[in-house]
UniProtKB/TrEMBL annotation:
It comes from Catenuloplanes indicus. Keywords: Acyltransferase, Transferase. Residues 1-150 form the N-acetyltransferase domain. This is Diamine N-acetyltransferase. It comes from the Bacteria. It is an enzyme of class 2 (transferase). SUPFAM superfamilies: Acyl-CoA N-acyltransferases (Nat). InterPro entries: Acyl_CoA_acyltransferase, GNAT_dom.
Length: 150
């Protein structure tokens, strides 16, 4: 497994990546995330997840992002998006992606690595719990905020 940058050669394949139909409320599309990556510039770290030559997922980390609005002095880092292709789930790619994002941000000096997720049955809460994320008690745009200390 490895991460790759989004490039002129792979971005069209990336745009076709899709989670299961019943999971589409859980995460924004790759298209939406790449638009945000453009707008947020240095605060966004988008990467594709490959298994050999097979594209299996997309992740985007956020780096020192003003948390609530552009003037917020509370700046945080963590995982913004994680989309593992529907038919590729359950094979360890999500775990690999989270660990890779943690390693990148740890190397940049991040101590607290945040994630937010939709708190519904069938959502990713158990996945993040298994990776050591603990809810902070905050809710952001209806999503549970959780943190893992790096
Ligand atoms: C959540 C998601 C990223 C997990 O990726 P994945 O590649 O399937 O996860 P892994 O194969 O690494 O699974 C690791 C563990 O988490 C568990 N797990 C994964 N998704 C789960 C879920 N939705 N509910 C319960 N357990 C889950 C796996 O069973 C596995 O458990 P094990 O270690 O006991 O075998 C993926 O299912 C996905 O893209 N879901 C839709 C979009 C989404 O919710 N993204 C997160 C937005 S914040």
């Amino acid at each position: 497994m490895r991460l790759e940058r989004v490039t002129p050669k792979n971005y069209e394949a990336a745009l076709k990546l899709s989670v299961r139909e019943d999971q589409k409320d859980l995460v924004a599309s790759v298209e939406h995330s790449l638009a945000e990556a453009y707008v947020y510039g240095e605060h966004a770290w988008p990467r594709l997840v490959y298994d050999g030559d097979r594209l299996v997922g997309f992740l985007m980390a956020f780096v020192d992002l003003p948390w609530k609005d552009p003037d917020d002095t509370d700046r945080r880092s963590g995982l913004w998006r994680l989309n593992i292709a529907g038919k590729e789930q359950g094979r360890g790619y999500g775990t690999f992606a989270v660990e890779a994002a943690c390693a990148e941000l740890r190397a940049r000096g991040t101590i607290d690595f945040y994630v937010t997720y939709v708190p519904r049955d069938g959502g990713p809460a158990p996945f993040y719990r298994g990776l050591g994320f603990v809810p902070t008690g905050e809710v952001a745009d209806g999503e549970t905020v959780a943190v893992r200390r790096l």
